[in-house]
Amino acid sequence: MPRRRRLVPAPPPAAAPVAVSHFRPHPWHGLDVGPEPPILLNAYIEITPFDLMKYEVDKVSGYLRVDRPQRSSAQHPTLYGFVPRTYCGDRVRTLAPTADQGDGDPLDICVLSERAITRNEIIVRARVIGGLQMVDHGEADDKIISVLDNDYVWGDARDLRDLPAVLVERLQHYFMTYKLVPGEKPQVTIARVYGRSHAVKVVQASMDDYVDMFAR
Known about the structure:
By secondary structure, this protein is an alpha+beta fold. The chain contains 3 helices and 10 strands; from the N terminus they run E-E-E-E-H-E-E-E-E-E-H-E-H. It has a single domain (about 40-175, about 185-215), classed as Inorganic Pyrophosphatase, CATH 3.90.80. The chain has helices at about 90-95, 165-175, 195-215; strands spanning about 40-45, 55, 65-70, 80, 100, 110, 125-135, 140, 145-150, 190-195. The strands form 2 sheets. The protein has a 5-stranded mixed β-barrel with strand order 1-4-6-9-7. A two-stranded antiparallel sheet has the order 2-3.
């Protein structure tokens, strides 16, 4: 009697390969700007509300370095970092009439989170709702204000007016005072507090400035 052949089910189709970097990407140039820019962005966090040191990404290596101890006793009200693949150049400067130039750095972003996040050098998903038009020594240095996407307390906010006014006041006070040196004239001004409609223009301008600067 002939031997019956055993039917072997075909293996499932192979999953599409996932692109994985074999090296740590530079957080400024190697990470995506976000899933839905200029509204929903990736934010690389340099400083938490619990830090008394000023950390800043090293532009060559991509690692965090200690920039300086915080001079004042004030602590940052929110998570703070920058948006990858952005640059504050001529387009950002044009949106800040009192500035002479952009500050030449990636766009800064503050991220509100109801739950405490105590570590830095992480990526969070941030939803843009407004910003501060800050000018530091004549340079446009906007601070985008955002909320942690899907946050149970702040996640429904879509514009700056959805936040308690005191939170925005704290951010203004922090950025107006964190560089103050006794006996010296302040060099920082906040010319304007703006909502989402202007914030998305600033984000888009910084993305376009990045292309002009690095994607030639």
